[in-house]
Amino acid sequence: MSFEIPDDRRYLESHEWALEDDGTVRVGISDFAQDELGDVVFVELPDEGDALNQEEEFGVVESIKAVSDLYAPVSGEVTAVNADLFDAPELVNDDPFGDGWMLEIDADDASELEALLTAAEYEEQIA
Amino acid sequence: MPLQTPPLRGLHDERGAKFTEFGGWDMPVEFDSIRSEHAAVREAVGIFDVSHMGQIHVTGPDATELMQRLTTNDVARLAVGDSQYAAITDEDGVIIDDTVVYRLPDETAEGANDEAGGEPTYLFVPNAGTDESTHERWITYRNEWGLEATVDNRTDEYAMFAVQGPDAAELVDEATAESITELDRFEAQYATVDGVDCWIARTGYTGEDGFELIVPWSAAEHVWSLFDCQPCGLGARDTLRIEAGLLLAGQDFDRESDPRTPYEAGIGFTVALETEFVGRDALAELEREGVEEKLVGFQLIDRGVPRHGYDITNTDSRVIGTVTSGTMSPSLEQPIGLGYVPVEYAEPGTTLQVVVRGQSKKARVETTPFIDTV
């Protein structure tokens, strides 16, 4: 089975992706992760304004069969959460890199992203 | 210990199934998605490979007495082709396992069916991974009681499939040479599927109409491939049985970690106190005195998903019980679960709380099954 791994973003070993645009980092989970979880039924996210540290647990994604913690790819302040996921958590399955995004962080230091996996490195990890 | 593999492991793998360890077996947990597999069974039909279930064969002049004394239900009520749900209890009335006992056609010592004069013969289905200890239990008691019966563990000789859903009868009937649509719930018969002799029972674990087929291991792949319907894994099996309020051994009762009696577990209907069986006296006393705790169904009112092991509290946040099973119900689109609580909290409509990752979520006791069942 092959999974989508867009190379415009970075990845955590714990399967979150991070897409930076002008200091704002959008976060979600990978296609591989949503497939492993199966039907996502519940997402718990932080509030806007919460401060996160890199690799800090920021929430939880639950499928019918499993619970998985979510980790922040960068330090910074949460500026947006995807409220659509509360009523339609299946967006995480349907479009993990697009409409299934989870939150946006105003990064304290966007260069933190450089420590994360590239698409090629992530592909190797899940192979 | 290496995992046991069902006869269809390779076929499932080719079909793209994900696997999980269950009771020492490497079983498919999901073929497509739990949600779509679940929906197929509720709305049409799906097929499960449940070859991890044990099969123990008991025959001989004292087979009925042996079965009677080791299971809680009244085996003497079974005519050939009947089956019943039962518990296997210890001397304290604690559930060791739950099972379905089928009465097969009488067999001769040679094993051939002999309508002219065989001995009473039973097949029962212990849960995954318990077949060896159950077989041993039967042998031990048979010897202790001096009963004449042959007890065979045939778990490795049979695959088992469950074809479940409102369209199951039509599909199974098409596959069998003999008509099986006349079978009532918990009735069974031998029927041939493309020349393969199968034991076919109108039983299941989903709350829907359906059939379970016990199939010779060597013909398993052939028989499976004749059923053109949604393959379903253990994931959907779990969501379906929770909605139907059915127990999972090792989770909703566990002799070691959460010992429960049939009365606590809500399966008092399997206990025939007028019969003689191991655990009968303890259960008779419990029946007179009443239980202190009971398994209830509940729905979470707040957002969240209840899971096995989560605390249940009263509205004062005092821990009063534990969630034994829980899921997001695909049919109801609500988080539901099962758990033991003191009887004073067991009334439907009672408000409880379930502690989900440190947060108290409001829950309400519901009647089970959660859905309409057959």
Automatic annotation (TrEMBL), chain A:
For whether the record's keyword set contains Transmembrane helix, the answer is no
- Identify residues that carry N6-lipoyllysine: 65
Where's the Lipoyl-binding domain?
24-106
Q: Which GO terms describe its biological process?
A: glycine decarboxylation via glycine cleavage system; protein lipoylation
Does the keyword field hold Iron-sulfur? no
In terms of Gene3D superfamilies, this protein maps to:
2.40.50.100
Keywords in alphabetical order: Lipoyl
Name the Pfam families for this protein: GCV_H (PF01597)
**Single GO cellular component term:** cytoplasm
Cofactor requirement: (R)-lipoate
- Cofactor binding summary note: Binds 1 lipoyl cofactor covalently.
Instruction: Return the PANTHER family for the record.
Output: GLYCINE CLEAVAGE SYSTEM H PROTEIN, GLYCINE CLEAVAGE SYSTEM H PROTEIN-RELATED
Q: Subunit structure, per the record?
A: The glycine cleavage system is composed of four proteins: P, T, L and H.
Role according to the record: The glycine cleavage system catalyzes the degradation of glycine. The H protein shuttles the methylamine group of glycine from the P protein to the T protein.
Q: Belongs to which family?
A: Belongs to the GcvH family.
Q: What is this protein called?
A: Probable glycine cleavage system H protein
TrEMBL record, chain B:
Q: Which HAMAP family match?
A: GcvT (MF_00259)
- The protein's organism comes out as Haloterrigena salina JCM 13891
The terms describing its cellular component in GO are:
glycine cleavage complex
Sequence intervals crossing the membrane: none
Task: Describe the location of the Aminomethyltransferase C-terminal domain by residue ranges.
Answer: 294-372
E.C. code: 2.1.2.10
| PANTHER family on file | AMINOMETHYLTRANSFERASE, AMINOMETHYLTRANSFERASE, MITOCHONDRIAL
Catalytic activity annotation:
N(6)-[(R)-S(8)-aminomethyldihydrolipoyl]-L-lysyl-[protein] + (6S)-5,6,7,8-tetrahydrofolate = N(6)-[(R)-dihydrolipoyl]-L-lysyl-[protein] + (6R)-5,10-methylene-5,6,7,8-tetrahydrofolate + NH4(+)
Q: How does it assemble?
A: The glycine cleavage system is composed of four proteins: P, T, L and H.
Please list the GO terms describing molecular function.
Answer: aminomethyltransferase activity; methyltransferase activity; transaminase activity
- Its biological function? The glycine cleavage system catalyzes the degradation of glycine.
User: At which positions is substrate bound?
Assistant: 212
Q: Which InterPro entries match?
A: GcvT, GcvT/YgfZ/DmdA, GcvT/YgfZ_C, GcvT_bac, GcvT_C, GCVT_N, TrmE/GcvT-like
Entry similarity comment: Belongs to the GcvT family.
- Name used for this protein in its record: Probable aminomethyltransferase
Source organism superkingdom: Archaea
Q: Which UniProt keywords apply?
A: Aminotransferase, Methyltransferase, Transferase
Please name the top-level EC class of this enzyme.
transferase
Q: Please list the residue ranges annotated as the GCVT N-terminal domain.
A: 11-274
Q: Name one GO biological process term.
A: glycine decarboxylation via glycine cleavage system
